[in-house]
Amino acid sequence: MGNTQSAIKYPGYTLVSEDEQMILVKNEGGDQFVIKKFDRGQENNLNFLLQLDHPHIVHHKEVIAGPDCLYLVLELCEGGDLTQKIKHKTQEADTFSENEILDWTVKICMALKHLHDQQILHKNLQPKSLFFTACGIIRLGEFGDIYEWSTDAHTTDTEALAYVAPENLSGRPYDQKTEIWRLGCVIYELCELKCAFKARNPVEIVTKILTCSYEDLPNTFSEDLRQLVKDTLQKDPEHRPSVNEILMRPFIIEHLHSMSIQTIEELYKTLDVMRNLADGLETVHFNTTVSSLTGGVVGLAGGITSIVGLILTPFTLGASLIVTGVGIGTAVAGGITAGASNITNMVNQQTNRQKITKILTEFQEKITSIICCIQNISTAVETLQNEFSTSSGSLSSAQSGMRVGARLGRGLGGIPELLRLTQVINVGKIAAQAARAVRVAEAATGVLSALFIAVDVFFVFLDSREIHNIRRDYALKSSRQESTSNQTTGLNDQSPNNSDTTNLLPSNTDQVEEMKSETMKFVTKIKETTEELQTILDTLRDALNPNSETPNTDNLEFVGLPPY
Questions:
Q1: Kind of pairing, strands 14-18 and 23-26?
Q2: Less packed terminus of the chain by CB within 10 Å, N or C?
Q3: Domain co-membership, 139 together with 190
Q4: Which residues contact 287 (CB under 8 A, 6 or more apart)?
């Protein structure tokens, strides 16, 4: 009865759970989403959320019109919110590393920039409005106006008061510089695990905010980070940097650059995992066929589904049988009981389809984040280079340099770093690659979408029909190899690294179309996809490569500083 009611209430979705905090639903594919209720008449105000497309903003899927209210469908961020992470760190008497703090800060800034560039204000920036996906990607959500309109919002006045900017307490309207104050409050809380303006009651909180009274960050944090907090928590909003100016700070650009390179290296490893999956499935295919599909491998491991679970072991347990040298075929044929036990545990916790989907989702999320980083690096470095393009040694140039240095947080002492940065990073190359990266992102989305479909098809057809089709495909391959062996004499001698397992793969498009086994179709699709993604990663890595030439530092003299 409950499912029938939810189908009427939320067409296309089935109710999973509902409480005061959240309505959780799932679609026909089993993917879960959050639904929030809103009063009728807010449709225009909700629709703009559907247009926001950014890797660090919560994805809003659709608005459903009910008989007496509206339902906003948005992605489920399974990693919880930042408030929960801060609480956990406090309970564990632990702290966030500065790299974590900086990483989240940069991504929040990129999300704010996306909004501010469109003259959109978030109006509710605080730890509770920052969420994490299952893959750990931070997302900005719970927009202020929208959050206030929601019929299921639950935030105490005192809790929200700690993030209010002093000008708002004095009656001035909310603007972009107000958002920067809230950003400073979030960064401070990440560092100290407590609110900057925490007090016993609302009156004390207001007093602290109006006097800008908070404890300085300790010297254990870098000068750059401490200066950023000071600048964002300036009482006069005119003295606070804009989000664009924050993203132009040298230490922020350097973090964007190094973070992107590190993420690309991680994605190369993910491609290796996907290749191992394809190799493992291919080996299983070979071993099941040579066992004549009568007990043997399939019977011992509990069927192909269990074998797939064993192949997916490295994704959950971190130890690949293929990589460690045991080999999937050997492990299954040898009856490794620990492996079989792990399969049972994994299947109980999460389906194999979900594991593969998570790998692909993480790849997609990280790719889009990298592209966003490249675009921000391009904009920031190009702007900085333009600021210093008139470095003729004149007084006006020196004054301009001083203003830029002060605006970006390090005053005169930051100018050498700024100049070096604009020369080390090839701005022309970055700008060109930033435009190309957008097209690369679209290509990656298409490639991954096709593989998502292949995953679904693969797991739907993992049943007795698959066993029959494996036998058919093996016979087909054997027949073709025998008929062409006379024409390819000596080919194997020229390619000693090719194994019998590799030869099971179709060699052309016609064979792929004739192939019935979903296992081998899936193997082929994975291999095609990994090659395309390899090219995409190579392109992004090339975009981030710094200029190999030694930077020219002679221009440092125009501000009265010696060249390095």
A1: antiparallel
A2: N
A3: yes
A4: 297, 328, 329, 332, 333
Question: What's the domain range around 59?
Answer: 2-75
Question: What token pair was written down for 226?
Answer: 């401490």
What strands, in cross-sheet order, belong to the sheet with 32-39?
Answer: 14-18, 23-26, 32-39, 69-75, 60-65
Average pLDDT score over the chain = 72
Dump pLDDT digits (tens) for 6-46. Answer: 445 778 889 999 887 788 999 887 789 999 888 887 787 78
Q: pTM value? A: 0.74
Report how many domains make up the chain: 2
Q: Are residues 91 and 235 in the same domain?
A: yes
Contact in structure between 33 and 23 (CB atoms under 8 Å): no
CATH number for the domain that contains residue 151: 1.10.510.10
CA of residue 269 relative to chain centroid, distance: 16
Residue 112 makes CB contacts below 8 A (sequence gap 6+) with 122, 125, 140, 179, 183, 243
C-alpha span between 434 and 441 (Å, rounded): 11
The model's pLDDT over 91-119, given as tens digits with 9 standing for 90+, comes to 999 999 999 999 999 999 999 999 999 99
| Last residue within a domain, chosen from 55, 75, 95 | 75
Alpha-carbon distance of 75 to 57, in angstroms, equals 10
- DSSP per position, 402-470: HHHHHHTTSGGGGHHHHHHHHHHS-HHHHHHHHHHHHHHHHHHHHHHHHHHHHHHHHHHT-SHHHHHHH
Supply the Cα-derived Rg of the chain in whole angstroms.
28
What CATH number corresponds to the domain at position 34? Answer: 3.30.200.20
Domain boundary among 27, 55, 75: 75
Dihedral pair phi/psi, residue 476, rounded to 5°: -65, -45
Quote the CA–CA distance of 516 and 467 in Å, as a whole number: 11
The tokens 């225009």 sit on which residue?
44
CB atoms near residue 460 (< 10 Å):
10
